[in-house]
């Protein structure tokens, strides 16, 4: 038994529906050997109940739930930072040439190790990872995930048109590969996501094959892109003859275990359909900014009842930090003026943690309540940075949290736990 002593902040009650930030000043979280939180409260009270527990003193600083990234691309970690291109140019010139390199398993292994290290460094403990187009790359990634301890959902990306030849598959092969990987990963902790890249690179037959996998395996997730860029949206309509969301609906790909990235340009009908299917949207603020995709209509999603969480969308997104994504989400709602959703620090924390856990069906994480697994990140500002002084002078806990989103970087994270364990500790992931 260990007791983690810190000021603890989390959002078990959704701030978008009236919940407030939960704060334990000088709190104590008792964690069993199996990683489950068994008590929480003021440190003095918790230590009185468990006088023999080891105390992990995380003062000063803040303890938050581990971050949940609902959209991040495995093969794009080395192309972060390309500026000045809209989506389709960026895919052609930047992302897809890099993704073709994942055909080499040694290259894929190195990239997989890099992204897992990067996620942990950013305080991310769970992620829905958009995979690679090559099955050996995904098999190597699965091995690295098992060693890492991260909670990962991922799958082989499939496309059968528009993209460079080496990235294409066939509907039959897409079906067979997905079923084989989902079978191989069953009961390993790694969850499978059926992953058509986007409707623009999918024939009807390919989407149908993806729908068949989802139908045959009700336990799998589904992920793709939707309504990201106006030119893309128009081309999808020309190709499939419907709105973008309907291209997935038609093949049984929408449900409570589906996460679609972006949705910057939805119609009201599309929002209604996403809400009816309980499908989640991964909002990717730095990507939407870097590619000039547009300002995410968060308020329209909320009013329609669509579930929304945060994604880094690396490599169009500018890094793996969900602190940065949270801050950028806030900026973009400000820019929307009276159409925007005014966001507080509690909203940003919720989007980066509990909302992500909900989107990914990870009900055992997302906040630090009794009964949850202890997935946590310790914000421990570096002494030579501005954040340390800012936190000392924060008015209250919510103000401190806003400063963490405004100023915090990976260098300010002092520790990460997943199910009570330090990830990547047992193995170095250097290939
Ligand atoms: N749409 C299809 N593929 C991609 C991708 O890799 N990144 C983004 N942002 N959008 C996409
Ligand atoms: Zn993406």
Describe what is shown at a glance:
Residues 63-422 form the Amidohydrolase-related domain. Helices cover 39% and strands 21% of the residues. The chain is an alpha/beta fold.
Strand and helix layout:
Blueprint: E1 2-10, E2 22-31, E3 37-42, H1 43-49, E4 54-65, E5 67-73, H2 87-100, H3 105-121, E6 124-130, H4 135-148, E7 151-155, E8 157-158, H5 171-185, E9 191-196, H6 204-216, E10 221-226, H7 230-240, H8 244-249, E11 258-262, H9 268-277, E12 280-283, H10 285-290, H11 298-304, E13 307-310, H12 322-335, H13 345-352, H14 354-359, E14 376-379, H15 386-392, H16 397-407, E15 413-417
Parallel strand pairs: 1-4, 5-6, 6-7, 7-9, 8-9, 9-10, 10-11, 11-12, 12-13
Antiparallel strand pairs: 1-2, 2-3, 4-14, 14-15
Bound molecules: guanine (GUN) and zinc ion.
Keywords summarizing the entry:
zinc ion binding, metal-binding, nine-stranded parallel β-sheet, Metallo-dep_hydrolases, binds zinc ion, disordered C terminus, binds guanine, alpha/beta, Metal_Hydrolase, Urease, subunit C, domain 1, guanine deaminase activity, 431 residues, globular, TIM Barrel
Please tell me about this protein's structure.
The chain is of the alpha/beta class. It has two domains: about 1-65 and about 365-415, Urease, subunit C, domain 1 (Roll); about 65-360, Alpha-Beta Barrel (TIM Barrel), CATH 3.20.20.140. The chain has helices at about 45-50, 85-100, 105-120, 135-150, 170-185, 205-215, 230-240, 245-250, 270-275, 285-290, 300-305, 320-335, 345-350, 355-360, 385-390, 395-405; strands at about 1-10, 20-30, 35-40, 55-65, 65-75, 125-130, 150-155, 155-160, 190-195, 220-225, 260, 280-285, 305-310, 375-380, 415. Strands 5, 6, 7, 8, 9, 10, 11, 12 and 13 form a nine-stranded parallel β-sheet that branches. Strands 3-2-1-4-14-15 form a six-stranded mixed β-sheet. The longest helix is centred in the first third of the chain and has 17 residues, at about 105-120. The protein starts with a strand and ends in a 14-residue tail after the last strand. The chain binds guanine and zinc ion. Guanine binds near residues 198 and 313.
